[in-house]
Amino acid sequence: MKRWAKIVLWLLPIIIAMISFSVGRFDVSLEHVFKIFASQFFDVEQTWTEMEERVVLNIRLPRILLALLIGGGLSIAGASFQGMFGNPLVSPDILGVSAGAGFGASLGILLFGQNFTTQVMALAFGIVAIGFTFLVAGAKKNAPIFMFVLAGVITSALFNALISLTKFVADPEEKLPAITYWLMGSLGTATYQDVMIAGPLIIIGMLILYGLRWRLNILTLPEDEAKSMGISVTKLKWVIIFAATLITAASVAVAGIVGWVGLIIPHVARMLVGNNNQYVLPVSIAIGSAYLLAIDNLARSITATEIPLSILTAIIGAPFFAYLLRRSRGGWT
Amino acid sequence: MRITVENANFHYKKGRKNLPNLYVNPINFSLDTGEVMAILGPNGAGKTTMLKCITGLLNWTEGQTYIDGKPLTKINKRALWKRIGYVPQAHKMVFGFSIIELVVMGRAPYISTLAQPSKVDIEAAYEALTLVGIKHLANKTCNEVSGGELQLALIARTLVSDPEVLILDEPESHLDIQKQVVILQTIKQLAKERGISCIINTHYPNHAFYLADYVLMTAKEKEVVYGQVEAIMTEQRMKQFFDVDVKKVIYEENDSIVQTMIPRALSK
């Protein structure tokens, strides 16, 4: 990849982020956005209103940060899983994390309403779901990878049933819409508290995966072959699953279930830079964060009410995936 | 380096039950620096399983592999895989890495977990590609090159860690005859010029004649025999192990004695 292409790639999320501050119902000019930020560090003559400052700093900034973190996080988690499972059709929720975290959040909303406890429950059940998947797969040393995939399908089915159960018993006036809306994913209520909860977990997960990016190339090989490179395949897989779970569960905890990003973005990255995960992983972060931020801008600006994220990611993602499928005729490389 | 297998056997498990031993009698052999052993047997004889057990990818259920007298299970994995190279059969890759990216992976035992390959590692990979004669393919993807070229790349991938033993699982099967010759010559050259011991699985008696100093022959529900090529590879054994009548032909070519086997059924 050319140097300028790399620079463009990393400028993309930054530029979209800058534009994002002035996008939305409440009009703030780009000039005011820059001045508001500058005034945090220097003396700048105040030409903007207090209202504008509050919107930019307290509403849009945490939202933009979360969109970048979650978009980049889900994409690197997806790319890592696709490599680890040696299958380009895998997404970060393949092992049932999203369903588990979704159930945790639904139950939380049902019992306590939408608050901190709900987020903790989402995180906790995301991890419980992974534990359950391992239990079903028979997490012996050498459980073959398809056992994990099937166990993930079972776990997802079970937790989706439990989600339906919470919806079934929820008060249809108030709780049911809250749960339903939440399950479709949204950054509409993003706060600094959300950034503080999810941010560190997502960043830790990203750093781990980023550090292992070359090792991940070896993990795409059949297991015996990978072992013959002298690496501890099982340990490495555990670490990758741990990191990806951290990212996915933290994302679901603050933004609900955001589909498609973790599946599609790694494909785009591979189209741009080939299959070497040394490049696929960082490029996935760059594109994924820019993509989810752009989607979120659409979500909050095309209609008077916010559109849930998963609706948009699917409406854009599904046709694009269909295009990829046709183009590659099932051969992904 | 000397690789020895003593009184080894293996059985699979079904649930908690032990299945019967895969080999009728325990396996014993010993291989010194630069020597080549061919494991010869029909399909289903457990040849691939044997290779995996020899290298510790599977654990022998009885007996043990020794490297210079030290039990293999006592050797640190990373250190072990610097000394042993495992060459699987060429197969289609899900992700089409370039040949050079594939070969660099062999440097993994020298690269710490969170690190990336350095210039030295990449140079080693180019050197290995040069050695097997496919440096010009470095930037092609694995799925663009032919089966034989990919097999050579897989051999190169083991060479980058400077191994003392190569374990090759039917490296020449599924290849056309010219590619087979290239692979066999490459292996022989590595053994003779670099002193790399080789253990190679093969279906072809003639390849054992060409390459091997020792032959280990086995077949399903038949004993395991081991010894020097001439002693093991007889017409009776081929009948017994492969259920095929062959004629052993010995002739002179370029001042050396060449042996070959021809199925009698095809000599009409």
Automatic annotation (TrEMBL), chain A:
Top-level taxon of the source organism: Bacteria
GO BP terms: siderophore-iron import into cell
TM annotation in the entry: 7-26, 64-82, 94-113, 119-138, 145-170, 190-212, 238-265, 277-295, 307-325
Record keyword Cytoplasm present: no
Cell compartment(s), UniProt: Cell membrane
Keywords carried by this UniProt record: Cell membrane, Membrane, Transmembrane, Transmembrane helix, Transport
Statement: the UniProt record of this protein carries the keyword Manganese: no
GO cellular component: plasma membrane
Primary localization: membrane
Membrane topology: Multi-pass membrane protein
MF-aspect GO terms: transmembrane transporter activity
Family: Belongs to the binding-protein-dependent transport system permease family. FecCD subfamily.
Name used for this protein in its record: Iron ABC transporter permease
TrEMBL record, chain B:
Recorded superkingdom: Bacteria
Protein's name in the database: Iron ABC transporter ATP-binding protein
Pfam families assigned to the protein according to its UniProt record, in alphabetical order: ABC_tran
UniProt KW keywords: ATP-binding, Nucleotide-binding, Transport
Keyword ATP-binding in annotation: yes
InterPro entries: AAA+_ATPase, ABC_transporter-like_ATP-bd, ABC_transporter-like_CS, Metal_Ion_Import_ABC, P-loop_NTPase
GO molecular function, one term: ATP binding
Gene3D superfamilies xref list: P-loop containing nucleotide triphosphate hydrolases
Residue intervals of the ABC transporter domain: 5-245
Entry-linked SUPFAM superfamilies: P-loop containing nucleoside triphosphate hydrolases (SSF52540)
